[in-house]
Amino acid sequence: MSRKYLLLILSFGALLAVPSVIHDTFFLRIITEAILWIGLAISWDVLAGYTGYLNFGHGAFFGIGAYTTALLMKLCGWSFFLALPFAGLAAGALAVIAGIPTLRLKGAYFAIATWALSRAIQQVALVMDITGGPDGMRLPTFLHPDFFYYLMLGVVAAIFALYWFLLEKAPFGLKVKAIREDDQSAMSLGLNPTWIKLQAFILSAVPTGILGAIYAYWITYIDPASVLGDLVTDQAVVMAVFGGLGTLIGPAIGAIIIYLFKTYFWAYLSDYQVLYLIILGGVIAASVVFLPNGLWGTISGYLQTRNAVKQKPVPQEKIDKGVHHV
Amino acid sequence: MSEPLLQVNAVTKTFGGLHAVFQVSFHITPGEIIGLIGPNGAGKTTLFNVISGFYAPNKGQILFNGQDISGKPPYKLAVLGIGRTFQVVKPFAGLTVLENVIIASFARHPKRRQAEQHAWMILETTGLADRANAQASSLTLAGRKRLEVSKALALEPTLLLLDEVVAGLNPTEADRTIELILSLRDQGITILIVEHIMRVIMNISDRVVVLNFGQKIAEGVPRDVAKDSGVIQAYLGEAPQ
Amino acid sequence: MKGRTKVLALLLVLAMSVPVWADEARDFFKVGVITSLSGSLATGGNVTKRGYDLWADAVNAAGGIEIQGKKYPVKLFYGDDQSEPAQGASAAERLATQEKVDFVLGPYASGLTLAAAPVLEKFKIPMITGSAESPMIWKEKFRYTFGTIPPVNYTGSAPINTIAGLNPKPKTALILGSNDTFSKATAEAFQDAAVKAGIKVLKFNIVPSGQDLIPYLSAAKAMQPDLIAFGGHDEELIKLVKALNQINYTPKALLMHYGVTEPAFIEALQKSADQVFGASVWTESIKTKGEVLWPDAKSYADAAMKAYNVPADYTQAGSSAAGIAFQMALIKINGVPPLDEKKRDELVDALEKLKVNTFYGEIGFATEGQFYHANVGLTPLTIQIQNGKVVVVGPDSLAESKPLYPMKAKK
């Protein structure tokens, strides 16, 4: 267990050091975006893998965060850091408003309802004058690669840590999984499924809104197509599923691999760009068939089995004392 | 006579015009084991679902410790002290046995550490401690039924509703389970148990309530109920148990 | 805090680091091309690619850009913006820092241009887009960004004015626009011009893209507008003409933009396409004189047809013209590759002062006001389909034929 922590902390340290070593702004941009996708993949997985609800309108949280930031900065003259928490709040509010009616739905119906809702939100942005309609909005230019790198890294690291604590350590994680596994049994044990699902929904939404805010300030231009379209949801889903649902490391790995793979092709093998799509499609299809638990799910499952075989049965004294670490 | 722990007052539950449970009344005093029997489709599980909050009664009320709990959701009743098992067992399949019981323990022990300790204790009581780290899905039916009981027990309930926890077990497993139920009563838990296996019900119940077509047709000590003509009639035409 | 594979990813990225070559002298120009080679805008992006490629091929066929007696070929480095602003910015960053391009030929769409411009502004690399023209771009006053196609609020008034000058003058108008950046701006430009020309706008509606127009048109039929003007794309234009036939209404004039000049429009509508007005800044037949590469519009159109077997439209032409603008400006400043920051700054000054006649028309970028760095040298054209052919009918100085008006009912 502590070996995992050590690796994570080392990785974080290494990432912190990157801008001091790599001054190439293009690579900084690549890594910044890779980190963004880690955040989007894990935030989608909170609801999908841990809670068992597939949100096909996840991008709406991202877009609402982006637009909230653009509106507050452009129309109210607020600074970015003042607008940032409101981006998260807006996404959280949407989660509450959307979650109360839709979280009662099951499986496919929830997926369809959330997808439809995100389409509707995109339409709202397309017709409102204040959001610029189809023209989109510009944000004040602030091009500092280091700033956005550290910001993205810090925010996603904080999101990861928050999720790690709430979903892997705190009781909340087990409660959420109980709802996922069998909500009737969970109810009979004192858990309120609607309330827990709503909390998970908010937990999935707020960080996504914040990531949308950072994206808007970083790219300086947003429009309904780019921040309220399908891309964010589609890519986050693919990355999380490929990496392994129900964990944090799975979607993170999925995000890194798919994003770097895609970017490498785009940057260095652009003549074979079509090939990238074919390969990616094939890999994902194959992974769904052969590795239903995703890449990390399969690897960690294998490691667990190997360790379990080595594990001795629990000694009686330990059981008597009621002391045991899982 | 002590105050009844549970009072079922003329409870009726209808589904689209069909009475699944019709004007059923009885009470349970603390420390009793009450058997609930009746032919298939008599309404036993529906009654369980009403008592445990999964259905609200259309008519009548349920009183628990004098408090009206009719229509209260299951998660509130769990906290009040009502635990139940499900006829078709509902383990949290993707989690370990221990995790299953930890989740149930959160009701009384909100912190992870204490919940875990409590869970270990429960697993020892129900004999699942050596399977603590196994996936719940890897248990045999007997194991899953015991897990089902463990989870309900972890709530530290005052009233325990057991739905067919013995059915499907071999004689050895069945005896172990009966021992467990009796020991739970000795610890002060009041039990309402549904079973098709007559010898189990008749041997351990203090009193028996008999349902047929949603209505109560008999109530009393096992010996008397067994002789009741209405009860015998209800079971004629039923395959012998 | 990421997984152990984050460390691996970091190593992968480091391994990918292309070694940074010193800025050695080279005898060719590195030209960045940022456009939509994939994604939802790929069709338009490929039009610009054809335009940029045609220019590069023509320049290289002549040996290169001739500066002080020596010829410097051009080499294109593509950055696919994938129709996403984030990738547009990334492409700009890559072309600036990895390839270290001398200048950039820009995206098909305005949104992508807006995302790439700040990055190029930071690295001081000039960009001319042969397609994007939204006023949103020029409003930002990016010093390093130019466009060869003027915004639609500059060109949209021309066809309205031409129509307003016809006899009997149209008194009323119904104006519709699809809810996308370009079409909406087009409809608004039509509306402004109509009001200024004294035409009463009975109804003005922006409709969601792809929506059925029959409800609007049926309501309009009752109002009997003399002029119906529509801002939309390809399919939508075709649908509108068919819808008008269906409700059996023929206005005195029907004006649509953008897509009337496309062969697909005439193919789909056959006789129904006749007498429809459109807008353009360039057609194959206009009488332009080019100082470099292609002497007139027709020779460009022929060269394009030969190379791609696809007729050239004004976006493709505008893209080739962007290359020509750079070419002429480089000659003026003796810009020998590689261009350092100072030279690129001079290039911008030269572009601002540039006045050149090309097969495309005159290129002259505005240096102030709402059309800052857009090409205001062109004369907006009114075109009309006559006997299945695209014909320039306005302004008078460039008209090839008289407009056919009022529109005859088709049956």
What does this protein structure show overall?
The complex is a heterotrimer of chains A (326), B (241) and C (411). Chain A has 326 residues and is mainly α. Chain A has a domain at 12-229. Chain A has helices at residues 2-21, 25-50, 59-75, 80-102, 107-127, 145-169, 171-181, 183-188, 193-219, 224-227, 231-243, 249-268, 273-290, 294-310, 316-321, and strands spanning 137-138, 221-222. Chain A has a two-stranded antiparallel sheet with strand order 1-2. In chain A, helix 2 (25-50) runs parallel beside helix 6 and helix 7 (171-181) packs across helix 9 (193-219). The N and C termini of chain A lie close together (10 Å). Chain B has 241 residues and is of the alpha/beta class. Chain B has a domain at 6-87 and 159-235: P-loop containing nucleotide triphosphate hydrolases (Rossmann fold). Chain B has nine helices and ten strands. Chain B has helices spanning 44-51, 74-80, 97-105, 112-126, 141-154, 171-186, 198-204, 222-227, 229-235; strands spanning 6-15, 18-28, 33-37, 59-64, 67-68, 82-84, 159-163, 190-194, 207-212, 215-220. Chain B has a six-stranded mixed sheet, sandwiched between helices. Chain B has a four-stranded antiparallel sheet with strand order 2-1-4-5, covered by helices on one side. In chain B, helix 3 crosses helix 4 (112-126), helix 3 (97-105) runs parallel beside helix 5 (141-154) and helix 4 (112-126) crosses helix 5. The radius of gyration of chain B is 18 Å and the shape is globular. With 411 residues, chain C is of the alpha/beta class. Chain C has two domains: 25-150 and 289-363, Response regulator (Rossmann fold, 3-Layer(aba) Sandwich), CATH 3.40.50; 154-280 and 380-398, Rossmann fold. Chain C has 14 helices and 16 strands. Chain C has helices at residues 4-16, 42-61, 85-99, 110-123, 135-139, 152-155, 157-164, 181-196, 214-223, 234-246, 263-269, 297-308, 314-333, 341-353; strands at 29-35, 65-67, 70-72, 74-80, 103-106, 127-129, 145-147, 172-178, 200-207, 227-231, 253-257, 277-280, 356-358, 361-363, 381-386, 389-394. Chain C has a seven-stranded mixed sheet, with helices on one face. Chain C has a five-stranded parallel sheet with strand order 4-1-5-6-7, with helices on both faces. Chain C is globular and about 70 Å long. Mean pLDDT of chain C is 91; it is low at 18-22. At the A-C interface, helix 1, helix 2, helix 5, helix 6 and strand 2 of A face helix 1, helix 3, helix 4 and helix 8 of C.
